[in-house]
């Protein structure tokens, strides 16, 4: 992808599924990472709107990146829920932002939104299991 939105770069943490669904982009904001997606035709449903599954994959990735930010943790999603508010179309840039609500010894609770030009598209909550590195014996 040659025309990236201002400040975004390809995210080096993507796994094969996230690369296939996206690719998702990333930039650092004042309150943590912002995840982005330039909506392309293959992200859209038969109505020309971004597919709900693509939105949920982007939101789930935003949850994980937010939970890992500033730690050495790896994460896996335990729970995820979303509410669809609006839609985006090919050519739009969708941004995901989230915040940590609570972090325990083994879990991280995150909430956030996907937006397009400031307009809310999806509100989401996720819980991830923290997979912290084991101490070297």
Give a description of the structure:
With 137 residues, the protein is of the alpha+beta class. The chain has one domain (9-131): Hotdog Thioesterase (Thiol Ester Dehydrase, Chain A, Roll). It contains 2 helices and 7 strands; from the N terminus they run βαββαββββ. It has helices at 16-21, 52-68, and strands at 9-10, 25-29, 32-38, 74-84, 93-103, 107-116, 119-131. The protein has a 7-stranded antiparallel β-sheet with strand order 1-2-3-5-6-7-4, covered by helices on one side. The protein is globular and about 55 Å long.
Strand order of the largest sheet: 1-2-3-5-6-7-4
Q: Overall 3D geometry?
A: globular
Summarize the helix and strand pattern as letters: EHEEHEEEE
Using the 3D structure, state the CATH architecture: Roll
Radius of gyration: 15 Å
Give the count of helical stretches. Answer: 2
């Amino acid at each position: 992808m040659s025309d990236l939105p201002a400040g975004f770069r390809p995210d080096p943490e993507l796994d094969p599924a996230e690369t296939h669904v996206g690719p998702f982009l990333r930039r650092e904001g004042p309150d943590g990472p912002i995840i982005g997606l330039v909506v392309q035709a293959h992200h859209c449903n038969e109505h020309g709107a971004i597919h709900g599954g693509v939105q949920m994959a982007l939101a789930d990735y935003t949850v994980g990146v937010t939970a890992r930010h500033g730690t050495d943790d790896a994460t896996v999603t335990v729970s995820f829920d979303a509410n669809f508010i609006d839609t985006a179309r090919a050519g739009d840039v969708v941004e995901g932002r989230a915040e940590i609500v609570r972090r325990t010894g083994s879990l991280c609770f995150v909430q956030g939104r996907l937006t397009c030009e400031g307009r809310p598209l999806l509100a989401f909550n996720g819980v991830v299991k923290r997979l912290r590195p084991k101490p070297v014996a």
